[in-house]
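Hey,

Quick one before I head out. I ran the complex with pyridoxal-5'-phosphate overnight. Inputs first:
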Amino acid sequence: MRTARSYKGIELFRVAAAFLVVAIHTSPLAAYSDTADFVFTRVIARVAVPFFFMATGFFVLNGTGVRRSLKKLLIIYAASAALYLPVNVYAGHLQEWDLLELIKQVFFEGSFYHLWYLPAAILGLALTALLMRRLSRGACAGAVLALYALGLLGDSYWGLIENIPGVSAAYRAVFALAGYTRNGLFFAPVFFYLGAQMRVKKPRPVGIEAAGLAVCFALMLAEAMGLRALGWQRHDSMYVLLPAVMYFLFALLMRARGSVSLPLGSFSLLVYILHPAVILVVRAAARVLGLWDIFVVNSLGHYIAVCAGSAAASAVLLWLWSLIRPRRVSDTARAWVEVDLDALRNNAERLEAFAPGSCSLMAVLKCDAYGHGAVRSALELNRIGVRAFAVACCAEGVELRRAGVKGLILILGYTPADQWRVIRRYRLTQCAVDAAYAHALDSAAKGRVDVHIKIDTGMHRLGESFEHVDAVAGCFALTHLRVTGMFTHLCVSDSLDGADVSFTQEQLRRFFALTDELKGRGIDTGALHTQASYGLLNYPDGRCAYARAGVALYGVKSDGHDGVRAWPELAPALSLRARIGLVRELPAGEAVGYGREFITSRATRIAVLPIGYGDGVFRCSMHGGAEALVNGKRCPVVGRICMDQLCLDVTDAGEVHPGDIATFIGTDGPETISCEEFAAKSGTISNEVLSRLGKRLPRVYRN
Ligand SMILES: *Cc1c(COP(=O)(O)O)cnc(C)c1O
């Protein structure tokens, strides 16, 4: 699961931030003015490290990449410490390290003065991920802010507590172990957390964000100058206003979208790691070349030389690495699913707007979000404010929660009662599939489990019968169950046929008669919901708290012929594509594929594609007129579809070469094959096509 990183502003600012860090360590304006140097390196440049933490939080903490990221940071840390080991040996530092000093160097200081960033990033990321997993949003924000506040007192606000005996002793103990409070414990978490929260940030006008940055920065400058005048600063990395400045700065950077092909993240990291070594080289070279005054004495000349040297060294290393690095298989090398996240978000917003009054969208993400990728889809939907999700089974719910998905996660299907601990641990809401199940779950559970009671109003799949009022009422009295909702499922809401409409209305009548009766008995029935996609589109209902939309959320109908009363401009989010592997010319009368079933009736150009029924292109569709688009033209599938291969007749598609892309679902030029059409040719519905797209197809996300 991968996205082309499409935040150009953030990627470009990485480079600026790296050069700001170099400034902190070289004081470019020191030769001109102490105040200018303070403002540049101790105030402006102080955004650099928090920015790196936020960018990591933004890209990593919302997904499943925390472990991978930590591993990478550890490797980089080990390599950097090794790189500077000779310098430490030369300077005789190692001889002075007792156990306490060693702990301090490894966990906080990073063994060389600028490397503190790496242990801080590792500790901060791990700690923030843990807090986010264990605590609610509010508690987590409170925790990281409290840590930051504690850090401030040991950093810029040291003067405030320096003379309070007990407090300053406690801080001195911290300093003995960690050197500073500017570390992974006190400093980094607030920025990692803030970065993660930027994904769910409410959109604001650009003017407000720009003004916010200007005002907060001006205040931070005043804060810094004030602290400097007071002489309170033991160190000058942390300001009260820094998180606010970072919020607005990051919000503005997020606006610049578009992809960047250069590895700017690696480049800025290398500049950061290498620049102290480059400082040594610049000094040596300046001495040898007799340029000491220009490149060492002159602070600006020194800064420019160090930046240029670091940039050149980093570029050369990246180029060398590109020659030898092991390549990853490209996601679009063979066959893949493309998901248009913009379409998904728009569909969610349109359905939410379409649902009447207080009814909100419950996004149905079962079976890996109908093939779209459940984790990624849920996180995107979280980001735009969707707070309710439905999955088919407990494991799907756990996967979402572990990835950091917030809000209600309702398990629509059966979960054995002995799994209650998992349901509870991941704050899932279980469907009580009938009253007997509710009792079994209650007996098994030793703690409170949230449930929505399912009512059977005529579909006769899951649910307690609508007629068993007492049995349903009894579920509300069970000690270990907290009933937070009730729902039913409609079985012909996709049909506008008279008899089906009456049946659906009867189902709704039965459900609400039951809930009214329970309310009459003083029972709080919780959130009520009755509609899936077609229910929402054909029977919008203000009495419902949720509409459980699945197929419509993905912008498709189950069957292309389904009539719906409304279709609020929903657009398909998914395409299925594959690359042509081989093109061959065959004369008339030749057979293609297993069983020699297809015989060419003319000179035919055949394209062989590395996709088959193992990927979800149903074998039976070869008899249903299956096609794919090549060069914007429809080309028939010929011969039997295999597990991993199939053939297209591309005779009429113009020039076709290996490596060209064929589209099985989606648009190519003027032509589109809809999911509904693809399904019809396989004798099924979109829901089955989407949920059976093969696991081995990479999902490629477009913003
Ligand atoms: C699958 C499912 C849905 C979603 O159905 P769509 O028709 O795809 O919107 C809603 N409710 C229940 C109980 C389901 O099983």
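Residues 582 and 658 are 5 Å apart (CA to CA).

Talk tomorrow,
K.
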